Amino acid sequence: MKNYFLNIAVIVFLGGLLISCDDSPYLTDEGVHDPNIEVSKVEYLEQNDWELFDTLVLLIDHYDMREEVNNAATFFAATDYAFAFNNQPLDSIYSRYPADTIRDYIFNERIMLEELAERGSPLTLNSASGKEFQVFTRTDNDFFAGERWSSVEPDFLYLTKIIGENIDPIGVDPITIPFEERDISVRMQTQGIIDPDGNMMHVISNTHSFGFN
């Protein structure tokens, strides 16, 4: 009986040792990821393994905007989490998100994280919809809430829709600004995707509400 329990203990120990030595790919440093893709922006979104961009692609195709998105110098892509609907008919989705809503995320300028970080100040520009936006970079300490996995604090790219006549100063507590005049900012979760034409695409955080609503 003692030998039986001893054997079980050895098996459990060895099993734990094997688990602790797991060399899964996500634990392995494979160097700097290649930001270049071999297909167009929309094709890249279509091919996402987790089908996270189905709603965005649906809208792009409905408004026949593939060429416009693919030719954009910069496109900010939103995941399915950004769309507010539950089993609504397609007509309701199209009514809620007209074509110019997509154009809010299309820019004629090539927006790069590295260039903005080097610039050191926000850049104000208009989207394809004609609305005014601001882009900037920031080292976000909130990103490290909990366990710190890197000694380097990365810069994050932000896109801000300007609401009202004045641009909200960066770092100012929003509560000091009237609600109807507060600019809306969103952080990128993936930044710096480069298509075959050298144009940019960034993926917006899942917490974003499409159309900046």
UniProtKB/TrEMBL annotation:
It comes from the Bacteria. PROSITE patterns: PROKAR_LIPOPROTEIN. This is Fasciclin domain-containing protein. It comes from Zunongwangia mangrovi. The lineage of its organism: Bacteria, Pseudomonadati, Bacteroidota, Flavobacteriia, Flavobacteriales.
